[in-house]
Amino acid sequence: MVVDQVRSSDDVDRLFHALADATRRDIVRRVLQQEASVSSLARHYAMSFAAVQKHVAVLERAHLVVKQRRGREQVVHGDVDALRTATRLLSELEELWRGRVDRMEAVLADLDDPHRPTGGAA
Amino acid sequence: MSVVSTTPDPQALTLTLVADLAAPPVRAWALWADARRLERWWGPPTWPATFDSHDLRAGGTAKYHMTGPEGEVARGHWRFVAVDEPRAIEIDDAFAGDDGEPDPTMPVTRMVVALEAGGSGTTMTITSRFASAEQMEQVVAMGMAEGMAEAVGQIDALLAAA
């Protein structure tokens, strides 16, 4: 069964790789709040314009942001769907474990458990 | 609610779950150490697990299979990396082939289980770690057999953590 029918595993890898860098996460946070040009983004970081441009390109390949040319500027805005994908994968894993813990509790609570060890283990 | 917290970390590819179990650590340990108990909670209700072998010691292995609603069989393999009764177990959980041996082309999940006296009996902390996002997706896809609820987007939480 496929978790996400839209994105391939390669896409998901690119997504997590892109989010693994603090500067890139900060860029995503900013452009989700408000679109920004690459040059205005570059002013926030102690790195060259070219370096920021590279970060934006990584985010673009991961579908986290969309870049559009507007006149002389490149304007970046955030793509919320990609973040939803990452978050959903971890949420699904969490649900799996919540189910397991619920069943663990049922096993512990089951006083008629025929496999309960004798000898006062409890 | 016995799950105290869950901490997904998309950067580190880990999920950390802390649960409060109403039994002392020695009994909580038996959830992992006793194969007959283990198979009552490991597999989802629609995919019950049967442990065909279970050798709980460092370097030991366990082999299990889960049976799906249509009679499908999914095999799994555990390698016990570290065992510290009744406090901690570290397990590599792998998919297995028909021979019961780990399938080298499939993902391995490292699970670290810690049991400490606390809360209403035992505080259990489980950390699941994946080697890559692709592997995580494969494991989650297998877990989908349970028919998990549609998750709600938690973008704010992810961004706050970032």
What are the salient characteristics of this protein?
heterodimer, A: 122 residues, mainly alpha, three-stranded antiparallel β-sheet, B: 162 residues, alpha+beta, Alpha-D-Glucose-1,6-Bisphosphate, Chain A, domain 4, 21% helix, 43% strand, disordered C terminus
Compact description:
Chain A is mainly alpha-helical and 122 residues long.
What does this protein structure show overall?
The complex is a heterodimer of chains A (122) and B (162). Chain A is mainly alpha-helical. Chain A has a domain at 9-79: Arc Repressor Mutant, subunit A, CATH 1.10.10.10. Helices cover 58% and strands 11% of the residues of chain A. Chain A has 5 helices and 3 strands; from the N terminus they run H-H-E-H-H-E-E-H. A 3-stranded antiparallel sheet of chain A has the order 1-3-2. Mean pLDDT of chain A is 77; it is low at 1-7. Chain B has 162 residues and is of the alpha+beta class. In chain B, 21% of the residues lie in helices and 43% in strands. Chain B has helices at residues 25-33, 35-41, 133-143, 155-161, and strands at residues 3-9, 14-21, 49-54, 61-67, 73-84, 88-96, 108-118, 121-129. In chain B, a hairpin with a 4-residue loop joins strand 1 and strand 2 (14-21). The longest helix of chain B is centred in the C-terminal third of the chain and has 11 residues, at 133-143. Chain B is globular. The two termini of chain B are 27 Å apart. At the A-B interface, helix 1, helix 2 and helix 5 of A face strand 1, strand 2, helix 1, helix 2 and strand 8 of B.
